[in-house]
Amino acid sequence: MVEYEEFHAVSSLQGWQVDRLRLADPATWPAEWTAIAVREPGRLPLTPLPPPRPLSISLTEALTRRRTDRRPRREPVAVQELADLLGWSLGLREQPGAPPGSRRHYPSAGARFPLDCHVLPLNVADVARSAAVYSPFDNALLTFGDPVRERDVELLLGFGVDEPPRVVLLLSASMKRTTCKYGNRGYRYALIEAGHVMQNLYLASTALDLPFAAVGGFSDIDARRLVDGLETDEIPLYCAVVP
Of 27, 80, 158, 187, which residue is 20 to 30 A from 4 by alpha carbon distance? Predict the structure, then answer.
């Protein structure tokens, strides 16, 4: 059995397990199955972002125009553009009667929301070049790392330092948020969720006329180094750049 088949087998469910999850009374679920994870800033600085603006093109046009664009640009990304991109891709979509944070612009198995989006703002107007994570509850960047160097990005992506991307986005999953309920199956769900978010990022960047490119081939050890220190079970899954 090859390795991907072993992973598939380990994360498989049988009919009785599906029934147990489907038929269980939600009133009997433990709190870790229902509580929405919130990153508490503590002493870490928050950089508030402006509210996202309405997107001005139709879904049909965004789907038609969507493409990967790696051509480098030199002008800084406006903080409003970054707020629009993050807000419409990962932000909250509150509804009356729904628990806070349980409705977002992408689906998540069991509303566990294991994903976080780490932001490396190398060239964003009025934003410090420090590693941060997007907080949808605050619509802000939670700064947790040292200033980002071009060398860090080169190690992560293999890009030359002469033309580093203006923004790097790194989607990671805090696995205990989903494995507490779904076991090994939660890893599959986190991968699926990362795909949902990446498509949102592509469509929002298209509407904003921002170049955008997903990156699957990145250095995992350097990605772990960049997100280290927040949650110990955090696994980098997917990367993207705004050139």
Answer: 158
Q: Where are the alpha helices (DSSP H) in 15-128?
A: 15-23, 31-34, 59-65, 79-90
Calpha distance 191→206 (Å, rounded): 23
The domain tally of the chain equals: 1
Location of structure tokens 């949808």: 136
pTM (predicted TM-score): 0.90
* Distance from chain centroid for Cα 221: 18
**How confident is residue 18, by pLDDT bands cut at 50, 70 and 90?**
low
Q: Domain range for residue 7?
A: 3-242
Q: What is the CATH number of the domain that holds 230?
A: 3.40.109.10
Cβ atoms 90, 84 nearer than 8 A: no
Helices (H), ranges, the chain: 3-10, 15-23, 31-34, 59-65, 79-90, 150-157, 176-182, 185-207, 220-227
Specify whether the CB–CB gap between 142 and 135 falls below 8 A: yes
pLDDT tens, residue by residue, 106-124: 999 989 999 999 999 999 9
* Mean pLDDT, residues 83-93: 96
Q: Are the C-beta atoms of 213 and 169 separated by less than 8 Å?
A: no
Structure tokens at 121: 């703002």
